[in-house]
Amino acid sequence: MIVFEDVAHDYGGGPLFRDVSVRLDKGSFHFLTGPSGAGKSTFLKLCYGELLPSSGKVTLMNRALQSMTRDQLAETRERIGVVHQDCQFLDHLTVEQNVGLPLTATGRPLRASDVSDLLTWVGLGTRAEALPPTLSGGERQRAALARAIIGAPNVLLADEPTGNLDWEMSQRLMMLLIELNRMGTAVLIATHDLNLIRFAKAQVQARVMRISGRRLQLAGSEL
Ligand SMILES: Nc1ncnc2c1ncn2[C@@H]1O[C@H](COP(=O)(O)OP(=O)(O)O)[C@@H](O)[C@H]1O
Ligand SMILES: [Mg+2]
Question: How far is the CA of 148 from the centre of ligand 2 (A)?
């Protein structure tokens, strides 16, 4: 679904990483780790076409990113759900409206029952009418997850989704991501939390990639 061939990215100060070749297949589960500043968020941005690679080739859903039209990119992005690191919401809209936004904003049909089922699944069934500023950190992360998957994406990308959460809440969120993967969605999670990776690896077959020394390496079995 997402294929990198000899990809490098450079913001202008020298390559952040280079020679990256990797495939994220249907139904797979990947972690991306590495120290702060290594390029994890940059890697995710390449995975949903927010950035173009400086060299090499990125293919999203069988189409070369570099040759997509705007419409093709928009269509491709509808199949990729993203949980951003900072999870911003429209604060004057309810949780329910925010979660439905990816569909309503692109003119796709939205069924109220789909939103309420999804909110129940992430444990926010009673918070549908709440405004985002009243949510706790864990609730925000779960609302962001619901919003990322309302359009039934083939791939879910999550950037440090447990960054501000305590361990119990991190485990809850991870269980939702594992369940989503079991239902067939490919999942890629950027995190520097090795405990979280160990927790997930006890329940799902996950590959761990690490950005280190400007290369993408597959982490060994020590994790
Ligand atoms: N838009 C940008 N322009 C220039 N440099 C950037 C930009 N975004 C990120 N960087 C730099 O690229 C490096 C990697 O950033 P990032 O991908 O956010 O790393 P990570 O998510 O692993 O912490 C950092 O040094 C960061 O300052
Ligand atoms: Mg980051």
Answer: 18
- The span from the CA of 205 to the CA of 34, in Å, is 20
Instruction: Give me the CATH number covering residue 11.
Output: 3.40.50.300
Residues 98, 8, single domain; the answer is no
Ligand 2 centre and the CA of 14: distance in Å?
Answer: 18
Compute the distance from residue 109 Cα to the ligand 2 centre, in Å.
Answer: 33
Given a cut of 60, is residue 64 above it in pLDDT? yes
Same domain? For 100 and 184 the reply is no
Please indicate, yes or no, whether residues 74 and 167 belong to a single structural domain of this protein.
yes
| Count of domains observed in the chain | 2
| Per-residue pLDDT reduced to its tens digit, 8-63 | 999 999 999 999 999 999 999 999 999 999 999 999 999 999 999 999 999 999 99
Ligand 1 pocket test: which of 41, 51, 215 has the largest number of ligand atoms within 8 Å of its C-beta?
A: 41
Measured from the CB, is residue 94 less than 6 Å from ligand 1? no
Nearest residue (CA) to ligand 1, atom 11: 37
57-75 CB burial, b ≥16 within 10 A, e <16: ebebbebebeebeeebeee
Residue 138 has pLDDT above 80, yes or no: yes
Find out whether 185 and 153 touch, Cβ atoms under 8 Å: yes
